[in-house]
Amino acid sequence: MKLQHTDSRALLAGVTSLGFLFALFLTECVCFAVNIRSGGWVLPVAFVLSAGLCLAAGGLRRCSYVALAVSAAVGLVSAVLCMLLYDTAFDSVGYHYNTVVMIERGWNPYREYAWNDSLWSMHYAKGLEVMQAAVLSFTGNLQTVRCVNLIFIFSAAFIGWHALSLAVPSVGRKWRMAVLSVAVCNPVVISQMLSAMNDYALWVETMLLASCFVMMWKRPAEWLPYLLVFFTVAIGINTKFTHFFYIGLECLFFALWCAVYRRWTILRRGCVAVGAAILAGVLLGYNPYVINTLDYGSPVYPLGGSAHTVDIMSGNTPDIYLGDNRFVNFAKSLLSVADSPWALLNGNITSGGILRSYSQDMAVNGFGVFMPLMMLLGVALMWMVRAKTRWWVLYLFVLGMALCFEQSWWARYIPFLWMLVVLPLILALDSERFYHSPVHCAAVVLTALALVNGVLSLGAALSSRLSYTAYINYVFDSHAVIRVTPLTYGLRQQFDERGVRYNECLNADSLDYSSGEYFLIFGTNSSMEHIMQLPAAEFSRLYPDTHEALPFYVRVDDRRL
């Protein structure tokens, strides 16, 4: 059955990419359930299933074949790009990659406790890690697993492009592309897309759901958007516990919207799609949801439901937020720079502080220093186009969702706040006043600020990865026998892939300090987890000019281990 309402190649490419990710997840989970070992065959099987979906939606036509080719190219290019850039994120190396490697090597989370005894690997939602394990089985390269992120983002962009063509059909392609670019330039997405972190996915899921809601509204009889909602919700609730909560609120808001406007057909079919997705998502996510509930009394253990609940926020809360409530801290985050509270108001701004605002996982001003101005411009734009009451309700709903979470100061947990930048632009495009000078100028400035903000985020993300890639390539290609503290699954996988020879010591204190220099592979300021030793001659070739301010270098003489 071909699509009745469009010949959009972009939509079909998005459907194929999203279907591919869901097929990866589904196939791996079926293997867990029947207790068989998955392998490199999962990825081609998933692509065949997604190709079948594309042909069922678009028919045996040229646009379907083009969409398949585009989807395959996105996956291939994404994998190659990720293979060339090493991931520097602490969460990636410390948690996510270990989970991926254990699954790829045969760990069945439905039936066994985590091989590394990690509370997080065992009890957290792990939808993206399950998909990434399938990619690792196929490619044999741990860095390529991040292509799942880029495929997910591209699927949302492709489907979003089609939704924009339905929502604002009279608007030219350039402006639609500008709005879509702004949507993709969410700083949380930009900073995490080349890592194994998963917070970014909430914005991708929000884009997908919003696009599907538009498609339902415009073409309520078409089956495809309901299927996409099914995929999105099932993936989302298995990506992160908080995503289950937030996408639930988004679906609930749309359900109320349908009820207010008496769109009962959409409401009924949407409820069936979401209900089926929740059921399938929880069953596929047998670990963690069912296991956590049966064994620990809470589906979100270890964050709740037990005397052994773990507080993960106290140690991650910057000092500037201590003692204030969520409302003050939310405002403080938007208006501060690095460690300087209210810096955008009192002018206590430094170039270093601004650069830190665009660093990975920044807990202060994580949306970038332009976010307050963009929010003000967005409100002004909505006022100038005389936005209807329902859109102001949606705006306040998004703001309210952000404040549901105590740690609303942390952008990585509320990436959907970016909707307050995107929504005013869409409303402006759909307004008869768009080409009035004040409205048009405000839209141009808002778009420009969002794109500059995205470029700064991308620059910060790429600079750290490029420098670390150059560093680690040199070290791995040195042909030295490297002394290391005991390796995690993820680090061992990377060492073995590159054929690096190494000797493991019990801990950092058991290394020989009498010669050589030490290089940090993974650790924190307070706790050294993994270091490796190279001869001094290797160090001098790597860093011939200075021993100062090198983030991965540890001097032996002052024992800063």
Structure description:
The chain is mainly alpha-helical and 561 residues long. The protein has 23 helices and 5 strands. A hairpin with a 4-residue loop joins strand 3 (517-523) and strand 4. The longest helix is centred in the C-terminal third of the chain and has 40 residues, at 437-476.
Number of strands: 5
Structural class of the helix and strand makeup?
A: mainly alpha
How big is the Rg? 24 Å
As an assembly, this protein is: single chain
Total helices: the number is 23
* Largest beta-sheet details: 5 strands, mixed
DSSP strand (E) fraction? under 5%
From the spread of the alpha carbons, the general shape counts as globular
Helicity, as a percent range: 55-70%
Q: How confident is the prediction overall: mean pLDDT?
A: 87
What order do the helices and strands follow? HHHHHHHHHHHHHHHHHHHHHEHEEEHE
How would you sum up this structure in a few lines?
With 561 residues, the protein is mainly alpha-helical. The protein is built from 23 helices and 5 strands.
Note the topology.
Elements: H1 9-34, H2 42-58, H3 62-84, H4 90-104, H5 119-123, H6 127-139, H7 147-167, H8 173-184, H9 187-192, H10 201-218, H11 224-237, H12 241-260, H13 264-284, H14 286-296, H15 326-335, H16 343-346, H17 351-357, H18 371-384, H19 389-403, H20 419-429, H21 437-476, E1 482-484, H22 489-497, E2 502-504, E3 517-523, E4 528-534, H23 536-542, E5 553-554
Parallel strand pairs: 1-2
Antiparallel strand pairs: 1-4, 3-4, 3-5
Helix pairs in contact: 1-2, 1-3, 1-6, 1-7, 1-11, 2-3, 3-7, 4-6, 4-22, 7-8, 7-10, 8-20, 8-21, 10-11, 10-12, 11-13, 12-13, 13-14, 18-20, 18-21, 19-20, 20-21
